[in-house]
Automatic annotation (TrEMBL):
Subcellular location: Cytoplasm, Cytoskeleton
Entry keyword annotation includes Cytoplasm: yes
Cellular component per GO, a single term: main axon
UniProt entry keywords in alphabetical sequence: Coiled coil, Cytoplasm, Cytoskeleton, Metal-binding, Repeat, Zinc, Zinc-finger
UniProt KW Cytoplasm keyword: yes
Organism (species): Picathartes gymnocephalus (White-necked rockfowl)
The B box-type domain, residue ranges: 200-241
Protein's UniProt name: TRI46 protein
Skewed-composition ranges (Low complexity): 52-67
Occurrences of domain RING-type (ranges): 13-49
A GO molecular-function annotation: zinc ion binding
């Protein structure tokens, strides 16, 4: 148990404190999640450019490119010249407003040193596929060692193969069919991997299939972590979903209170107008 915990600590990203997702290998030999690295660069005033837009990038070769990140069309030469002259870089991690490409310095969260990434920024980094496979195998090992049993089987219980967020329960194949009969409302429930801790089903980003975590006030739309680091939302006002929800709720509550307080006045005016109409008709 202790050795497993020690191993798990080695598989945790130093930025998000969760297990690595698409880890990138830094020149100092430490690793960081792809999304975390782009957020760190964004916080230090660098424009983020998706490495998948650079076909020669080691982190974006066809065998290693993440299926979650969409492929971008390569800009035409004249378009590229206009972008360079206008000061919007096509290099990952380029400083805002910089006219000429510059080397990108990345503050490694593990060794606390500034690491030189060169002009291409994140595009020059390799994706650590070995570490990614180790994380995936560790997850599988944990799932096998802590098998989840069906909550509806009569003894002996079978191992659960499906979960249901709406029912907040885990089922074996037969029990899932039994408790979700065809032709009923429950038949519409989507099966999920079995778990003991069911979280409410969050809203998903239609573009990246990630759970939305922030709200862009400028675009007036919900965004996920990957949307947030794209150049599309550079300089936009972005707040956490909870903050945006509370602000909008407070605004709607005030508007509703004003409408309700004015209701009596409006009804009185309507009655007076109806009397005036009758008087005019007479």
């Amino acid at each position: 148990q202790t050795s497993m915990k020690n191993m798990e600590r080695e598989l945790v990203c130093p930025v998000c404190k969760e297990m690595y997702k698409q880890p990138l290998a830094l020149p100092c030999t430490h690793n960081v999640c792809h999304v975390c690295a782009s957020e760190v660069l964004l916080q230090h005033g660098h424009l983020y450019c998706d490495p998948t837009s650079e076909p020669t990038s080691p982190a974006a070769t066809p065998s290693t490119r993440s299926p979650r990140l969409g492929r971008r069309a390569v800009p035409k030469p004249d378009r590229l010249d206009r972008l360079l002259k206008s000061g919007f870089g096509t290099y990952p991690g380029r400083k805002r407003g910089a006219v000429h490409p510059q080397t990108v310095s990345f503050p490694c969260p593990a060794c606390r040193r500034d690491v030189d990434l060169g002009e291409r920024g994140l595009g020059s980094l390799f994706r650590n596929l070995t570490l990614e496979r180790v994380v995936e195998r560790y997850r599988q090992t944990i799932n096998i060692s802590a098998a989840i049993m069906c909550q509806f089987c009569k003894p002996p219980q079978l191992e659960a193969t499906k979960g249901c967020t709406e029912c907040k329960s885990s089922f074996c194949n037969e029990c899932f069919k039994l408790y979700h009969p065809w032709g009923t409302q429950k038949a519409q429930h989507e099966p999920t991997p079995p778990t003991l801790t069911f979280r409410p089903k969050g809203l998903m980003c239609p573009e990246h299939k990630e759970e939305v975590t922030h709200y862009c006030k400028t675009c007036q739309r919900l965004v996920c972590q990957l949307c947030r680091v794209r150049r599309t939302h550079t300089s936009h006002k972005i707040t956490p979903v909870l903050s945006a929800y509370q602000a909008l709720r407070e605004k709607l509550t005030k508007s509703l209170a004003y409408i309700l307080s004015s209701q009596d006045t409006v009804q009185t005016q309507i009655a007076e107008l109806e009397e005036t109409v009758k008087h005019t008709e007479v």
